[in-house]
Design a protein that fits this description.
20% helix; six-stranded antiparallel β-sheet; 4 helices; globular; alpha+beta; 171 residues
């Protein structure tokens, strides 16, 4: 894709809002014209399907922002969430991926360990567990509540994604 290949469409993550990561991102850049017009035509039916699946009965779905991410070998995204006013759903579209690097932080793991007695001292001392989404293949759209903490592990192969935030406006 020529847009993803053009480095002028991207900043490094550290210059895009002070992220502590190594990724190229178009966050904060224009989403007018191509490839975004084509992306919206592809993306909107997927969001409608999601809303149908979760039986969303609110007023409307507002796309708040979206951006492209390019990960070269060794690139990563630190643990973060998307808690901002007017945002309640986040997503990642797997445009070009060849390995499963995306993870959610399992915030229930410490409670589970303590209440069920971990099988080893190592499990008790390791405070972070990660949950890997099942399908991280090209063309898949992953949607989650914006307050879920997540990250991308260092990549051993190039990776391209489109991420963003939505607001599902209640009735």
């Amino acid at each position: 894709d020529p847009w993803f290949d053009d480095d002028s469409n991207f900043d490094t993550g550290s210059s895009a809002g002070g992220w502590e990561c190594k990724v190229q991102t178009s966050l904060g850049k224009s989403t007018e014209g191509e490839p975004w017009d084509t992306w919206k035509k592809h993306f909107n039916p997927m969001v409608k399907s999601f809303c149908d699946d979760v039986k969303f009965t609110g007023k409307r779905v507002l796309p708040e922002e979206y951006w492209g991410n390019k990960y070269s070998i060794g690139s990563y995204q630190e643990v973060h969430e998307h808690i901002l006013p007017g945002i309640n759903i986040s997503f990642c579209y797997f445009y070009e991926v060849s390995e499963d690097n995306f993870r959610f932080l399992d915030t229930e793991s410490d409670i589970t360990r303590i209440t069920t007695l971990a099988s080893s001292i190592d499990e008790l001392l390791n405070p972070i567990d990660w949950v890997e989404p099942l399908d991280q293949t090209i063309g898949e759209l992953l949607i989650w509540p914006s307050y879920y903490r997540h990250m991308v592990r260092p990549c051993t192969k190039e990776r391209k994604t489109i991420s963003g935030n939505l607001f599902l406006e209640p009735s």
